[in-house]
């Protein structure tokens, strides 16, 4: 499939696909006229790349991990690295939950004050 079709099927921009190629995360074959062509399996690969980016991994880490993840070759080093990334995400989730809870308390206090006629105006 051509780059536009892959972008549509994977739900990403053509620009993102070109970036993935620049980062050696995705490969294409070129037609005689220079157009990029991808196998059907590229859709799953792009979605995996997107998930790894969403998890906060930088492109260098994704490039290192991707062959092992795709081929299912779990080495102790890969497991350690993935576990460390998961722990980092868990920590971030904890921070976000704490921030959400504090914001909820502020909203509750502001609502109670508003109901009693104590208004604070934003500047």
UniProtKB/TrEMBL annotation:
DNA-binding keyword on record: yes
GO molecular function: DNA binding; DNA-binding transcription factor activity
Alphabetically ordered keywords of this record: DNA-binding
SMART domains, per the entry: HTH_MERR
Nuclease keyword on record: no
Domain HTH merR-type residues, every copy: 1-68
Pfam families: MerR_1
PANTHER family referenced in this protein's UniProt entry, alphabetically: MERR FAMILY REGULATORY PROTEIN, REDOX-CYCLING DRUG-SENSING TRANSCRIPTIONAL ACTIVATOR SOXR
The protein, known as: MerR family transcriptional regulator
Source taxonomy: Bacteria, Bacillati, Actinomycetota, Actinomycetes, Kitasatosporales
């Amino acid at each position: 499939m051509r780059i536009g079709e892959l972008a549509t099927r994977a739900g990403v921009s053509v620009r993102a696909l070109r970036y993935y190629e620049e980062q050696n995360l995705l490969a294409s074959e070129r037609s005689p006229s220079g157009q990029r062509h991808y196998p059907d399996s590229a859709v799953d690969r792009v979605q995996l790349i997107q998930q790894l980016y969403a998890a906060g991994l930088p492109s260098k880490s994704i490039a290192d991990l991707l062959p092992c993840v795709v081929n299912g070759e779990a080495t102790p080093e890969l497991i350690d690295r993935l576990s460390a990334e998961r722990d980092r995400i868990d920590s971030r989730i904890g921070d976000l939950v704490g921030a959400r809870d504090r914001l909820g308390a502020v909203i509750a206090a502001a609502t109670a004050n508003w109901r009693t006629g104590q208004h604070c105006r934003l500047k």
